[in-house]
Design goal:
Elements (H helix, E strand, L loop, with lengths): L1 H18 L18 E13 L12 E2 L2 E12 L4 E18 L5 E18 L4 E17 L3 E20 L4 E12 L4 E16 L1
Antiparallel strand pairs: 1-3, 1-9, 2-4, 3-4, 4-5, 5-6, 6-7, 7-8, 8-9
């Protein structure tokens, strides 16, 4: 666990160092000027860490893969005040493990999710932002054991995140985001660290 914390801290510091010399501060997450509006897309990718393992059969001594890729796509409406609204989707892996039965046959189980979440965000400072939202998770579980099968489930859920965004031009920024995602009904949770490209693609 200590190594995981050092890894997360190292990624945050590395991104901050890379973007620290940017001189263009016109792109910010603070409120836009009066009667100015914008649509901003956040494209992120990184690594997720699965936090729950309550659904695994312990008597089979499962080999759980805690780390997996995590991707997100978010579009936010930036009005001329502090609170912003938007929608997020993406792809994350929750449960992923292998196990063997008494006869030595291997079973592989993998649960992935596509979230569709309504979110709001607020800038605490010129660079630091908080996000929160709720919605649904489209869960898919793939089972490979004496044949392959797929089951699907819909779960309500939520998310919370904190991000740091450094402008690199008037409409583009680079960021890093620490995010918690939770599918409440299935008790699946994941925390991820993602690098982001932030693009203010429309103003009016």
């Amino acid at each position: 666990m200590q190594n995981n914390k050092r890894f997360l801290l190292g990624m945050v510091l590395a991104l901050s160092a890379i973007t620290a010399h940017s001189q263009d501060d016109q792109f910010t997450s603070q409120p836009t000027r009066h009667k100015e509006y914008a649509l901003v897309v956040y494209m992120g990718g990184g690594v997720g860490y699965y936090l729950a393992a309550g659904g695994t059969p312990n008597y089979l001594q499962p080999n759980i893969s805690k780390y997996s890729p995590a991707y997100s796509l978010r579009v936010m409406w930036h009005p001329d005040h502090l609170i912003k609204l938007g929608v997020e989707t993406g792809s994350i892996t929750f449960l992923n493990y292998t196990a063997k039965d008494a006869s030595g046959q291997t079973a592989k189980i993998r649960t992935t999710a596509v979230p569709v979440l309504i979110e709001w965000t607020m800038a605490l400072t010129k660079r630091f932002n908080l996000f929160a939202g709720s919605g649904v998770y489209f869960l898919k579980t793939d089972l490979d054991y004496a044949g392959k099968s797929v089951s699907k489930k819909l779960s309500i859920g939520w998310m919370a995140a904190a991000s740091f965004i450094q402008p690199v031009s008037k409409n583009v920024g680079l960021g890093t985001e620490l995010k918690w995602m939770d599918a409440a009904e299935s008790t699946d949770g994941s925390i991820s660290l993602q690098l982001q490209l932030v693009w203010k693609f429309l103003r009016w």
